[in-house]
Design a protein that fits this description.
Number of helices: 15
Helix content: 10-25%
Shape: globular
Structural class: alpha+beta
Number of strands: 52
Largest sheet: 11 strands, antiparallel
Strand content: 25-35%
Radius of gyration: 29 Å
Amino acid sequence: MSSPRAKVFMYSHTHWDREWYLSQTQFQYRLIRTLDEIVEVLLADNSFETFVLDGQTSIVEDYLDLRPERRELLTQLISDGKIVIGPWFTMPDMFLPDGEALVRNLLRGYRDCRAFGGRFPNTGYVPDSFGHIEQVPQILRGVGIDNYVFSRGRPASIAQDRGWKREFIWQAPDGSKLFALPICTSYTEGKYLPGPDNPETLRERVQKVIDLERNSHRTDIALLPHGADHSWLQRNVAEIIDAIPRLMPEIEFHHGSLQDAVDAWKGAIPDGLSTYSGQLRGRLTLQELHGTLSSRIDNKLMNESAQMHLENLAEPLHAVAHMFGRQSTPWFFKKAWELLFQNHAHDSICGCSRDRVHTDVNTRFREVIELSTDIADSALDYLNSPARRDAVPTLIVYAGLNGGNQVVDFLIKLEEKPDGQCCFADESGTRHCLQWTSMIPLKVQHGEAFLHYWECRGCVYIPDLKPCEVRKLVFRAGQSGTLPCPGVETIADNSLTNGLLQVHVNANGTVNLRNAKTGWTAKNTHYFVQEGDQGGGYHFEPIPNDHRRDTREQKAEVKVLAKGPLRGRVEVSTKLRVPARLDHKTGKRTGQRTLPVQTIFTVEAGSPLVKCHTCIENTAGNQRIRLALPTGLNTRTVHADASFAVHANAVDKWPADAGQNFHPMRNFVSIHEQENGLAFLGKGLHEYEIVPTNAGTRLEVTFLRSFDFVMLCCTWATPEAQLMRPLDYDYALTLHERDWNKAQLPGLAAAFRNPPVALVHGDFAFPNEHEPHTTVGYYAQLPDGEIPVDSNRSTWKLYNAHRDGWRRVERERFVQGEIDNRILPFEIDGSKLVISAFKESEDGNGQILRFWSYEGTPQTVCVRASTPNANLVRCNLLEQPQSTTESNSGSLELTIKPFEIATVKMTPTRK
């Protein structure tokens, strides 16, 4: 029986990084010239019919930013299928953005495809991201895509297992499946093809891709990617397309979109495809470049803050305010998400670009934070407008996406310094205990006069906050609050306990963490280690004969910063004595630096977490600094989360690099043995390692990797990547019983990542505050004089605290009518659920709630809207209804599988 006739599918493309070794502006200049030429060839009378624009729609936007007069032409070419865009807005890294950002990236890509008249492609094309999370099959299935075409991140186990072919079925944790089609070698395999004047070489290049398919199920189908990074289109491409069938009449040649090849492959799917479950990580062909998990940690930290401000604050609060009549403002969210997507492109968020690129990245993150802060702040103002209008001192608390029992910070301005007992009372009369942090006398120049008051900061314990709840409490002077759980005790100035756990600081700065319920203790844990790194932006490379240094080498300084009952804080100051720099010529580290390392441990009433804030004042280069957490637990397996998932990693099973053993996490990593466990919960820290020792397994989390060059296709200097400045980190530790699931760590990590916020209104009203006015400055009254301070002194606005003193009071903040003292925009009944989004729907006609389950078995989840007759319907990730699950009774029951993502649209009944 003769072999089937080979079908060669050639697709012309360019993999376009918006920024990398050049800035976005410089690449945009090259994009204009490149796309102009592509359009010119497409419009010519020849056989060149299709160009694939890298699976991204942002490229079109970047082009039209400078060539707006060509929008109609590009729209025509896209609608005719001559230029293929999508499914992504920007091609993201898969591990560093959170799951919600990946969903929104595809949603924006879908909207762009529709706006330009093109078809949303059924091709999950990701040629150059550095590994792939295990939930990609479910995410892509949720937008209607059933396949995945990729290159980097192929596990070696796929090749080692008998019977594995190139293609396979990839299964997500919920059971969703995709056809996975790895590109044989690289998406650049067909770059710069020889022309018809060099027929033998052209024939050899095409035959090479045919031969590469020998380990495929479909040996009759070969993929020829014609292009490279930021590459121009060969002007003789039409001649090459015409020449190949003449030179190779024995093959069936096609030139078109990638979709053509995928459809042909799916047209005769062979039996016996192997099924793979888990993350795609490894270097079976192209390197995975897994060192980017810790490159430019400043970008990672700001990314977490930007995502939190947008997803946890701005979107839910605006959606709640809109339910009470606030104007919808989708343009603000489009702008914020666009900035975030631009930063989530793999070379941007991964920290492997030029210094000026990462300066731009942090600038965009700052813009997202500022815009999201103003949206959230304005929504809180609106929801508390009656209290502000009537000058009633009211604390308005927003619970965050996942709620919980929380100690919430607040700032209140009072005419007199509070003396004696105070509390906040809710609508039922329950008085909530508070704890003062600071009291500062201030005055403000308001118009022509000065007003004096006290700025008082503190925290209040509010139990049982529901997801996305907004609650109002009134300040009561002279009344005490009640604390429904044991308070925080400070013992001997170096120990804190709250009845759930105890933190004891040792002389060398390590801590003993004790589970008050079981008595199990993790001893001498939490210290920082440093070692040399001669690698660059893509990889960590240890320095031969270098040794590790750690903070246990000197005695620590311990100081109590706050004592309970709601919160206790202990500050631990240590030092790292390290070499100053790396001499690349000799390969040795020279000089010496002393790096101050300061950690504040916080224990709060009712919380199982030890919250930690660490500042490292870095003045040294070419190094890696990690937090070391000895556990004393004898296990070689840990569990860590990814987007919408939790997975296991083991010391003796490493799919990416035989010489190194670090893994990705999204928000937490947990290690346990039988009944005892320890977990690290992070914000923007995504790299950890499992280190077996005779004393048990040690967990190490990378806090800093500083380097001075990036090398892949070429080498360039990145002195700013040394990150020589103070760096701040927020994270938490917890001791738990049994495994991650029993401890409900995904929910705990989600609540820690997305904390509540609170504002006090009506506490100190300016005369005629409901009218526009000018406030020119605040001043602190100190014993030795007065100093100006920022004019927007809030408790949670981290990046937007310095304004110019000119203040516009929006009239809508003083609307007439009452808004409920307790707002529950929805209720959700189920176990072990994590909410990832609550927002206005894309069509502006309702709200979208998205959540996922980590319950071990299928469960029935009930979602109830705030209005009894609302219409609820389950949607896919594109917010398109699935009519079989519709309800107009104000509630909806869903059956949710383990690790399944559910999206529900709630539409209020219109009168």
